[in-house]
Amino acid sequence: MGLIARKGVQGTSFSEVLEAAGAPRGSLYHHFPGGKDELVLAAMDEASRLALGAIERARGQPADKVAESFISFWRTVLTRSGLEAGCALLAVTLGADTAAQRERAGELFKRFRKVLREMLVEGGVPADRAEGLAAGLLSACEGAVAVARAEASIKPFNLVAAEQVRAIRAAMR
């Protein structure tokens, strides 16, 4: 996950995965007989599971706090990695080796949008606004992560994040 988030699919080799895992070559083929495609799909699922788990901790809070929690997750990814890591799902979307990888990314992004929408509604955003705000929050953060990495600065991420929170606060009942 970390290698894909830093280097993308094409930039990540089996050798690097083995080195990072401290595993013998045979174990990779044993656990992932489908090769790199199967490994990438598994990494995407794990990245999604971890991120959704972090977001779910904000369930039941006001919508602006849900947004701040989602933003905080991405800010932490950026700062802990020294602005080197982004979203593994976005990396796969932009450089998928197979249609299955791109399709899985789409499924997982839909899941994120659905969870964010539900949590925004629970937190006080009208249902007719929640899907657009959830899509905006997800898309804005994904783009802001990429821009922050490109500029080697957290500033663009923070600017986008502040606007997303303001928009969600304005929509709250």
TrEMBL record:
Alphabetized UniProt keyword annotations: DNA-binding, Transcription, Transcription regulation
A Pfam family that the UniProt record links to this protein: TetR_N
Record-annotated HTH tetR-type domain positions: 1-50
InterPro entries noted in UniProt: Homeodomain-like_sf, HTH_TetR, Tet_transcr_reg_TetR-rel_C_sf, YxaF_TetR_C
Gene Ontology molecular function, alphabetical: DNA binding
Portion annotated as DNA-binding: 13-32
PANTHER family, alphabetized: HTH-TYPE TRANSCRIPTIONAL REGULATOR LMRA, TRANSCRIPTIONAL REGULATORY PROTEIN
Name this polypeptide is given: Putative HTH-type transcriptional regulator YxaF
Phylogenetic lineage: Bacteria, Pseudomonadati, Pseudomonadota, Alphaproteobacteria, Caulobacterales
This protein's encoding gene: yxaF_1
